[in-house]
Amino acid sequence: MLGLVQTQSVSPVFVGRIRELTDLDAALARANAGEPQALLVGGEAGVGKSRLLEEFLGRCRATGAVTATGGCVEMGCDGLPFAPVATVLRVLHRQLGDELATAAAGVEGELARLLPELGEATREAHNETGRARLFELTARLLERLAADRTLVVAIEDLHWADSSTRELLGYLFRSPHRARLVVIATYRSDDIHRRHPLRPFLAETDRMRVVRRIELRRFNRAEVHAQLAGINGTEPGPALVDRVFERSEGNAFFVEELARSIAKGCGSGLSESLRDLLLVRVEALTEDAQRVVRITAEGGSEVEYPLLAAVAGLGEEQLIEALRDAVGANILLPTADGDGYRFRHALVREAVVDDLLPGERSRLNRRYAEALEADPALVRADQRAARLASYWYHAHDPAKALPAVLAASVDARRRYAYAEQMRLLDRALELWEDTPPHIRQAQRPFDQVDVYPACGCDDEALSHLDLLAETVVAAHLSGERERALSIIKRALRALDDGVDALRAAWFWTQRGKLLEGLGRGDGWAELSRAQELVRGLPPSAVHAEVLAQVAGWCALHEPGPEAFSTAERAVELARLVGAEGTEAHARLTLGWLKVDSGDVADGLAEMAELCERVTEIGNVGVLGRCYVNYASALEGVGRSDQAVQAAIRGVEVVRRFGLSDARAWLYCNLAESLFSLGRWAEAEEAALSARRLAAGANPRAAAASRLTQLALARGELDTAERELAVSREHYGTHNPQPQYTIPTLRQTLSLAAARGRIQDARAALDEALAEGFPPGTQRHAWPLLLAAASAEADAGGLPVAAPDRAEVLGRIRLAARRLPGTVPVWQAYARLVDAELLRAEGRDTPGLWAEVVAAFEPLERPYQLATARFQWARALLASGADGEARQHAARPLALAHSAAERMGAGPLREGTQLLARRARLSLDETSDGDGQDPAEELGLTPRERDVLRLVAAGRSNRRIAEELFISPKTASVHVSNILAKLAVSNRGEAAALAHRLRLFAPEPAPAAPH
């Protein structure tokens, strides 16, 4: 008896796991140094994940760290939205009190969705931005709490996590960059079947460098020996160790169960089935204790004591005695907050649930539901709706389940748990036909005006189509676009367009957006159908939304008068029907189109006013787009400094509201404007920030495009080629927009020209001219025409460029004449393009370049100004060799060189240096110099100069050998040496560089045939 009294089912000695604890301690040390840590601990059920976590958290607390643990809660097949994160925040609130409230100051209403103790939740935004804001604010709260101390957040049972919890956890893994924070989560690896929702999450974390995976193996025989010694308090005999090790196969939990059973004298009478092994101790309990265990198992992974008391129907003393028996047998444990009970191990709960009869399960769920309806305070407010919905659903009572499920879906939407909302709505669709008609007609759960405006008013009874529409919205917002599309197809099949045109138009509009997002088209056919359906109908919110979507589509794909008039009508209609969000979107589109059409002052004023308005009222649905478009519009008219200020302001605002995708776009805009201002190092930093933040394909492509432009200007051609490929891949081909296609073609053209592939450059120009430049695209078209004209001028001496040169130059000139120059920056570009075309024809003059310089001097375009000054100096030096020409060329050349040095414009810097050496000019703007021959400065020997001259003329190695009376092999060696000294990768680039730097006089053109 003495040995039996001392036996315990849990070893007081922590066994094994030395390597794993070493890894965890190292992560804690890095967190203490300010480097956030993210860890995932996986292993089969019962292998010891919770015990390892308990040991680690104890070590953390011993170092002064604050720890908080939350567990994912299983309710049938669903997890409760954000349950573990809410528990973590609740534990921190209990530990830190006012400090947490202070850290959440200003955003309590948003964070109250996770922690109701912070106050009343603000009105939710029914779009992706509200959810992103909640994620960002949660990350910022943890960062603040971990600023001066180490904070360890632990999430258990991730295999039960709802989609929202998984997505929030993924955000927390990658978001903090500087905080003393450790986020650690455990999951049951043997539950992760091929279709388990955690599998893609784990695959995604494997690609994150910041996340470390730790997989727990089973114990070996020596570790089982140590575990048994700890459990029994004495050294176990070899036979006992062999027996337990063989039966448990090293699973720590099974070791405990077997040790307990053997100590109680069960001998070898255990069933071979796992369920019987798990149930053997349950069956040894008293009748009341067994009953309480069964009731607790059906209530969820955790059950509050008051709720358990209401369902059990036992007297208080009787219930407490039964719970004491179950806790003493290590079957149940008090919850972390001390308010209820949970199973010590989920496997036991699963075995108990599996042992219940179907009718028994339904009866227990009904009792839980009835108890909760009678007294809602029995569970926490943030879990009440989901728990009630689950209980009634599993009670198989559609009349009670449908209202509960719908109410839970609204609660999930309010908390931005869109995946959980979608699953609840799927259940509602499943219950719909089995629910009595009078119950269905009584349902009015949704705010139809905000989410699905087709109904027109909130007091209209819910229809099956409304339910489908709400499911579409939830599926779209949760990223389940395929699911949303299938529901839309189902709704459109059921709709009679002639009878219910508004609903049909709404569904067609959503279908268009989804197809565009899925890369299956541009969405225009669907928008056109929606337009047809609302045409001639009385004004409505749906009609306003359709017009706003059409205006936005046209502004991006086919800007012009039609887009302008559509945007005006959308603004008027949205204002008439009181659709404030739709009106803001339409006004923004209209402001953009005004700027592009030449009404710059009014357009920019409209956009600026809208930015302030939506910031003031916190309209997150349009706020991000406001700042993104406003900064872009300023850049588009050459006001780059104002654009930088607007983008920086926008970054601050959208960060406060948690809009990470809008931040990515704003950093892209910031990179573009900083490049224009010649602040290239800052531009690169902004582009890389955009890349880190971007979730969608288009902002990732835009970030790559900014990096491509920087690399081209710096002369880093391999980097430019790599980034251009990334940009093309993310933009794709399914949804061409001029704002994407024209810059991509410009960069393709510039890269080909820099590589010496003039025919490839012309092919890119041909593609751009074939597509045409719609109204409002001059901001992209002028730089493309400049790149084409400069490429032709630089290739003037290349024989391969001679054919069709006149025709190409004529096409560039014609396209330039058709482009508007409504603002000074584009007027200056027009002069620069004309000057480059004349240079390509050999007809440029110093006076022409002086005019270009004068046009750019008052503008915020230092790179273009430096380029024009360089060409001015070149033209002056070419006009005469007298001292006066050299004197006039010295200052613009020195200024061009200084600007190139400051910006890091490699090719321009090299060009100025070589021109200065050839003209024997000093670049310090003060004195003449006696520089060396440029070819000598490049380190070329006389023979290599001869070879390079023939390479530039397009000769093959064999022809070079023949003309110089050397062997082809020797010619090949000379070419290789030249490529290395010029730091280029092929003959074409070498020839292009030689012509650009005017190392040799161009060969005379062949005589025209008689």
Any overview of this molecule?
The chain contains 51 helices and ten strands. It is globular. Among the domains are: 18-218, 3-Layer(aba) Sandwich (Rossmann fold), CATH 3.40.50.300; 222-270; 287-394, Arc Repressor Mutant, subunit A; 538-598; 845-931, no CATH class; 937-996, Winged helix-like DNA-binding domain superfamily/Winged helix DNA-binding domain (Arc Repressor Mutant, subunit A), CATH 1.10.10. It has a five-stranded parallel sheet, with helices on both faces. Strands 8-10-9 form a three-stranded antiparallel sheet. The protein has a two-stranded antiparallel sheet with strand order 3-4. Helix 10 packs across helix 12 and helix 41 (805-818) runs antiparallel to helix 42 (824-840). Helix 8 links the parallel strand 5 (151-156) and strand 6. Mean pLDDT is 84; it is low at 1-7, 268-272, 453-459, 926-932 and 1004-1010. The protein has 1010 residues and is mainly alpha-helical. InterPro entries: AAA_16 (IPR041664), P-loop_NTPase (IPR027417), Sig_transdc_resp-reg_C-effctor (IPR016032), TPR-like_helical_dom_sf (IPR011990), Tscrpt_reg_LuxR_C (IPR000792), WH-like_DNA-bd_sf (IPR036388). Residues 933-998 form the HTH luxR-type domain. Pfam families: AAA_16, GerE. Residues 710-771 form a coiled coil. This is AAA family ATPase.
Would you give the CATH topology of one domain? Answer: Rossmann fold
What does the main sheet amount to?
A: 5 strands, parallel
Low-confidence stretches: 1-7, 268-272, 453-459, 926-932, 1004-1010
Percentage beta strand: under 5%
Helix content: 55-70%
Taking the alpha carbons of the first and last residues, their distance comes to 123 Å
